[in-house]
Amino acid sequence: MSVRTNDQILHDRVNLPRLVKRLEKSVSEDDWSVSSQRDTWMKAQGTLQRIRHARLLLKNVEVDDHGTSPASEHRYQRLRATLDQVEAFVTEVEQKAAPPLKRPTPILPSIRVPVTKAADLETIPVEATLIPTEDTTPSVPSVDDLIPSLPSVPPILPAPSSATSNITATPTILQNSRALQEELSEQLALMATQLRRNATHFSESLVKDKSVVEAMQEKLEGNFDFMKKERLRLREFRGKSGSTTCLVIMSILVVLVAFMLMVFVIRVT
Q1: Residue 122 above 50 pLDDT?
Q2: Mean pLDDT across the chain, nearest whole number?
Q3: Among 42, 45, 117, 123, which residue has the fewest nearby CB atoms (within 10 Å)?
């Protein structure tokens, strides 16, 4: 858990009421029905992101507030109730304006299943090779009688069932994986678009906050210069008023002494 500095704690305490007031104002004053359905949905998405940020700020402020008083607890409950009301309204608007989810057209039914044809293998019988000889002796049998004829070789055909099933199953797996990849690509594109919108909205909010902070800084600097001038004037006035006070006190003492002398002289004479 990261340690938060005093500047961050003060920044959260200052921004939390401003953010909640801005959200409440946007819900009560903005028109959520004039713009198109897509713009309304995008606006609702951005408002929900700001509500989540406000809840995070409220949680951080509550954690950092160690000495919680009844007044601060009441203020936190009021902020939480306001955020609940705003979130309920924006969620209802977001559900009404949400675009319908469209699944991509499946390409699997449009692909024809490949048909494999087993090649018919023709059997070629092996013919006996005869060696011609000359009949030299009538009593010796002929060579045709001595060499027997070779039997015909049966045809050898491969089993087409396993090959056909493998060929048919492979395109089906490829089609399923391709459809899944297209669906994931579409979801990633939607997420990237939403992330870009959130980044744009956050940058615009930072620009607005920066202008407000700059204006407050200018006012604080002006107040600081004015207080410095007033401090110098107060110092000069205090010096003058001190000397005048001493003169007045001395005058009062002189008048009292003179009055007492006059009363004494009158009594004596």
Answers
A1: no
A2: 75
A3: 117
- The span from the CA of 9 to the CA of 15, in Å, is 10
Nearest to residue 87, comparing CAs of 56, 39, 47, 57? 47
Give Dmax (Cα) for the chain: 211
Smallest Cα–Cα separation from 27: which of 98, 111, 91, 71? 91
Residue 165 is encoded by which pair of tokens?
A: 């099933």
* Tokens 């090779």 found at: 129
Residue 123 DSSP class = P
CB 68 within 8 A of CB 139: no
Say which range, 58-67, 155-164, 256-265, has the weakest mean pLDDT.
Answer: 155-164
Question: 164: which residues sit within 8 A by CB, 6+ positions away?
Answer: 116
CA dihedral 17, 23, 27, 29 (to 10 degrees): 70
Closest CA to 62 of 79, 48, 45, 50: 79
Is 147 in a helix, a strand, or coil? coil
Q: Element (H or E) spanning 26, and its range? A: helix 6-29
Model confidence, pTM: 0.37
Rounded to whole angstroms, the Cα distance separating 91 from 48 reads: 8
Q: Considering the chain, what percentage of its residues have pLDDT values greater than 70?
A: 73
